[in-house]
Each structure stands twice: as C-alpha cells, then as structure tokens.
Amino acid sequence: MRQSPHATSSEKQNPSAIAQPVIDMLPRLHVLVIGPGLGRDLLMHDTCARVIEAAKKNHMPFVLDADGLNLAQTRPELVQGYKECILTPNVVEFARLCKSKGIEPQGGAGGKDVETLAKAFGGVTIVQKGKQDLISNGVRTLVSDIEGGLKRSGGQGDTLTGSLATFLGWRKAYLDKIWDHEGDLGEEELLALAAFGGSSLTRECSRLAFSKKGRSLQASDLTEEVHGAFLNIFGEPSSRL
After folding, report:
1. Is 131 annotated in some ligand binding site?
2. Alpha carbon of 30 to those of 60, 63, 155: distances in Å?
3. Is 92 annotated in some ligand binding site?
4. Rounded distance between C-alpha atoms, residue 26 and residue 37, angstroms
5. CB count in 10 Å sphere of residue 108
6. Is 85 helix (H, G, I), strand (E, B) or coil?
7. Closest of 36, 38, 34 to residue 51, by C-alpha
8. Do 35 and 64 touch, CB atoms closer than 8 A?
9. What is the pLDDT confidence band of residue 11, given thresholds at 50, 70 and 90?
C-alpha cells in the first residue's frame, strides 16, 4: 500500500487514513488476497483489518494466506462467520489456528480436524495444505489428492492464493450472470469448487515443475506451468464465451 507523498506525519501512522485509498478501490475489485509479503508490522495489520471490514460490508470474497493468517489467529472476529473467506494454512499455520480456537488436532485421515476448525470459525472455508489438500467449510469436506511435485518450495502457496483469487473472480462472473447459463450452482457450492480448482491447479503446476526441475525447483517455476496445468486439468471450451 503506497501512501501519498503529501501525507502528514499523523496520517502516516493512522491505519484508517492508510487504508482509505484501498477501500476506495474496492468497488472496482472482485477479490482480495491478503498475506503474501505482508509481514507482522502492527500498523500494517491494523490497516488490513480496516480493509477486511470494508470488504465484508461489500460481500467481497477474500483469501488469507501466510502472514494474513496471523490476522485470523489474533483477531478472529475479522473472519468469524464470514463465509466468503478462504484460509490456506500449511501444517504449522494450521496448528496455530487450532490453538487459537482451543482445538487439539486429532490427526488421521478424512479431514475431521479441518472440518472442526472450519466450524469453529463459523463456516469459513479452509484449505489445509499437505500431502493431500483438505478443504472444508465445516459442513462439506473435499479431498484434493491430485499428484503434486515431490518438493515443496517456500512461496509455492502464492500460486495457490493467486489461483483461488482467479476462480473466485470467475465465480462472481457466474453469479452476476455475465453470460447466459441456467444458474444451477449456488454461492456455497461455487466457493467449494473454486477452492478445489485452485488446489488442483497448484498441485498440477507443482508436478509439472518438479518433472522439469527436480530438486532444484523454486516456487517461481510453478508460474511457468500455469497454462499447461490448466489445460491438463480443465481444458478449454470448444467456443469462446
């Protein structure tokens, strides 16, 4: 977030003033991704909290990843019960979120832990990243077990958050009926499909990148595989919309 060069000293330390230019842009946006590269600075987190509150008033979906998950952990009221929110914790982040809710993970297969945590957050969607990605809103739990690469590189989650944001943007286009369709998919089902689609695409990107780069794989290598991975998983429609 870039501050105005003309901002006063007090404005530069005022999270509401810093957040306002971003809030003013929200009507032109479809989805927010908060977290990658965010850091733990208190002023930045205060600023993000105000942006999130404004996004909720606009019923805007958002994805919290990386340091953005710290907001869900320390300020759970920001996401509590907001079903347009997706959290994307890895194993360590998942444990921290469970601890913040007083939940003792039980382990095992079937996604019971992620289901319990999603319920505790009031029905947000959680993508628990791991050997299999477990996706749950507390009611419906999906297992994304498409083969991925054999190396997980730091920053790989950025591909997931970007993919999730893209699918959520397409979800909004569907709900806004910018093309003719029967409208037989509801908001909740579409959000689950967006989460599953983002997970599947990322895992396929990882598989393709690892097949080329092996142990030298870096997170940035996944970006080069997005197009091929999309075609492998979803294909392209026979005619343009």
Report:
1. yes
2. 7, 12, 24
3. yes
4. 20
5. 8
6. strand
7. 34
8. yes
9. low
